[in-house]
């Protein structure tokens, strides 16, 4: 892990940022006419083992989508939640091992001195064998928003496909929220404030809180992002598809992600 990436780790805090003054004005204007809805009461069952896509992946961060790295099942999360190689324990505090954290998305080169460039604020959890929810790997548990199924061949939206005023759904911390896209653009701050550069980040009207990082983001009902930063209490996300590509993993779009479950 690079020194800049070590400085970037902040597992107990959803990092906050503000855009340029014009962007802040846009967000303020939208807040006068837009609001987000948060619901916690679920009506769908919890599988055993549970689907952690869309739910709490460990104590500090949320799960995004299940994906496949060769023959290994992984769960996406946020790159600022944990370093590669660290063990993730079950969020219930009982000491069970959920898996081991894999690499953090990072571009091979970066034109900004003192920064790391990344396609998305993303890493992945190498899911422990007994925590893989076989038969449900193409599902995202949106809590009160229900399970969402990734259809065969469906791909996550790219930055260019996300439009201002699109409907956004976010699931993290067991809280389902919906709102709208407010704005999108680059993310670049002085290195001493945040040493990671993203070519695209999207601001939403959805309220954010500590623990949302890594959570699943749907735009128009399609997987589109990973909760990455906050705009003064509102959630911002980076693109899912480019992050998956940078990590060399493919989103699961079938119940067993093209693999054969172990017997029993």
Write a structural description.
- The protein is mainly beta.
- It has a single domain, classed as Beta Barrel (Thrombin, subunit H).
- The chain is 9% helix and 35% strand.
- The protein is built from 3 helices and 17 strands.
- A 6-stranded antiparallel barrel has the order 11-12-13-16-15-14. A 6-stranded antiparallel beta sheet has the order 5-6-8-4-3-17, with helices on one face.
- It is globular and about 50 Å long.
- It starts with a helix and ends in a 13-residue tail after the last strand.
- The relative contact order is 0.24.
- The model is unreliable at 1-34 (pLDDT under 50).
List descriptors:
mainly beta, disordered N terminus, Thrombin, subunit H, 9% helix, 35% strand
């Amino acid at each position: 892990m690079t020194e800049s990436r070590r400085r970037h780790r902040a597992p107990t805090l959803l990092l906050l940022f503000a855009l340029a003054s014009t962007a802040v004005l846009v967000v303020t204007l939208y807040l006068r006419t837009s609001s987000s809805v948060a619901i916690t009461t679920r009506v769908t069952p919890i599988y055993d083992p549970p689907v952690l896509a869309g739910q709490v992946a460990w104590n500090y961060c949320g799960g995004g989508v299940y994906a496949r790295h060769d023959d290994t099942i992984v769960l996406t999360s946020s790159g600022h939640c944990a370093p590669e190689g660290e063990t993730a324990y079950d969020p219930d505090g009982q000491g069970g091992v959920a898996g081991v954290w894999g690499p953090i998305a990072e571009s091979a080169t970066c034109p900004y001195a003192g920064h790391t460039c990344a396609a998305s604020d993303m890493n992945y959890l190498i899911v422990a064998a007994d925590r893989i929810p076989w038969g449900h790997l193409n599902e995202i548990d949106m809590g009160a928003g229900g399970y969402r199924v990734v259809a065969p061949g469906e791909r996550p939206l790219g930055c260019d496909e996300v439009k201002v005023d699109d409907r956004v759904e976010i699931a993290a911390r067991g809280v389902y929220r919906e709102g709208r896209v407010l704005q999108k653009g680059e993310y670049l701050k002085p290195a001493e404030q945040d040493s990671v550069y993203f070519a695209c980040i999207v601001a939403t009207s959805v309220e954010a809180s500590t623990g949302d990082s890594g959570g699943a983001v749907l735009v128009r009902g399609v997987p589109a992002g990973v909760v990455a930063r906050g705009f003064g209490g509102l959630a911002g996300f980076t693109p899912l598809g480019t992050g998956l590509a940078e990590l060399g993993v493919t989103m699961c779009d079938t119940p067993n992600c093209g693999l054969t479950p172990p017997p029993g």
